[in-house]
Automatic annotation (TrEMBL):
Positions in coiled-coil regions: 179-206, 231-260
Keyword annotations of the record: Coiled coil, DNA recombination, DNA-binding
Biased composition (Polar residues): 9-24
Protein name in the entry: Recombinase domain-containing protein
Length: 305
C-alpha cells in the first residue's frame, strides 16, 4: 500500500506538515497510523502524549487511562463498521518478524546512487539496493551484485594493494610524493591563514565604520554577510587541508596496513573479521561495478620520475 501511494505521487504527511525533512516516500508505519486513527470514525483523542520537560524536543506517549476520549465529537468520515473490520484485518495479518540474519556484506555494501544499504536476497544469492527493495523502481534501480562476485572483487583488490606495497622502491617513491604534497598543502594553509586574519580585520573595520556613521546599516550587513561567507569557505578549506595532512602519515598508514594484513595469512576467503577490520564501506554502482573504501589510507601509485 505504501509503495502504491508513493508511485501515485500522493502527498505524504510530512509534506503536508511542511517539515524541513519531509520525504516523498510513504512508509508502512505512516499508512498504519492512518488506518488505526480513530478520528476517522468521529472520535477525538486528546492528551495522547506529553513532553517530559519544557525544553525537551521529544514527546512520550501517555497511557490510555491518561488520555481524554470524546466520542461523536465530529461527523465520521468512515463508518465504524468499516473501521473495526480494518482493525481486525490488521490484527489477523500481524506477524512476528523473524530475527534478521547477518549476511557477509550487510552494513558494509551501499548503493552508490541513493546511499541506502544493500539488502541480501536469498532467491538471487546477492544484494540489491534497499531503497529499490522497499519502494520500487521509482526510488532507485536494483544495483544487483551477487555475493560471489562481490567476494571475488574484494579479494582481488586486497591482493592488488598487498602486491603493490611489496614492489621494489615503492616505499621510497611514495615517501617522496607524499612529502611534496605536504609541502604544497602547507603553503596553501599558510596563505589561507593570512587571508583569514585579513578578513577578520575587515570585519572589525566595518564595525568601526558603522559606529562612526560612515556606512549605512544595509551596507554594513551586506559587507558582513559577504565576509562571513568568505571566512566560512576559508575555515572549511583549512579544516580539509589539516585533515588531509593528518591522514598523510605514510609510514603510519603502511605499517597499519601491513599489521592488519599480516593477521590474515590466507587472502583467498573473505571472513567477517577481515572485512570489518580492513573495509569501511563498499559502494555498488548501477552496472554492478564497485568502489571500496578502506579503513586505512590506500597507498597510491608513485609518480614516474
Amino acid at each position: 500500500m505504501a509503495r502504491g501511494l508513493y508511485n501515485d505521487d500522493v502527498t505524504t504527511p510530512s509534506q503536508l506538515a511542511e517539515k524541513t525533512n519531509a520525504t516523498t516516500k510513504w512508509h508502512g508505519s505512516s499508512v498504519r497510523k492512518i488506518l488505526e486513527n480513530p478520528h476517522y470514525m468521529g472520535i477525538l483523542k486528546q492528551c495522547r502524549d506529553h513532553k517530559p520537560t519544557v525544553t525537551s524536543k521529544k514527546r512520550k506517549h501517555n497511557s490510555i487511562s491518561d488520555q481524554v476520549v470524546i466520542e461523536n465529537s465530529h461527523e465520521p468520515i468512515v463508518p465504524i463498521e468499516d473501521f473495526l473490520v480494518v482493525q481486525e484485518l490488521i490484527k489477523s495479518r500481524k506477524r512476528t518478524r523473524p530475527q534478521s540474519e547477518k549476511y557477509l556484506f550487510t552494513n558494509t555494501a551501499f548503493c552508490s546512487d541513493c546511499g541506502r544499504g544493500m539488502h541480501f536476497k536469498k532467491n538471487r544469492k546477492g544484494y540489491i539496493c534497499g531503497n529499490y527493495n522497499k519502494h520500487g523502481i521509482k526510488a532507485c534501480s536494483n544495483h544487483y551484485i551477487s555475493q560471489t562476485s562481490l567476494t571475488d572483487i574484494v579479494l582481488t583488490d586486497l591482493n592488488r594493494i598487498s602486491n603493490k606495497i611489496n614492489k621494489n622502491n615503492y616505499y621510497q617513491s611514495l615517501i617522496k610524493e607524499i612529502t611534496l604534497n605536504k609541502e604544497q598543502m602547507r603553503e596553501i594553509l599558510e596563505t589561507n591563514i593570512n587571508e583569514l586574519e585579513a578578513k577578520k580585520r575587515d570585519k572589525t573595520n566595518l564595525v568601526i565604520a558603522l559606529s562612526n556613521g560612515i556606512i549605512s546599516n544595509d551596507d554594513y550587513q551586506l559587507a558582513i554577510n559577504y565576509l562571513n561567507e568568505v571566512i566560512t569557505n576559508i575555515v572549511n578549506e583549512n579544516r580539509k587541508l589539516n585533515k588531509e595532512l593528518e591522514h598523510q602519515d605514510i609510514e603510519k598508514d603502511l605499517k597499519e596496513f601491513k599489521k592488519n594484513l599480516s593477521s590474515f595469512t590466507d587472502l583467498q576467503v573473505v571472513t567477517p573479521e577481515l572485512l570489518h577490520t580492513l573495509i569501511d564501506r563498499i559502494e555498488i554502482k548501477a552496472d554492478g561495478t564497485t568502489k571500496i573504501h578502506y579503513r586505512f589510507n590506500e597507498p597510491t601509485d608513485p609518480p614516474a620520475y
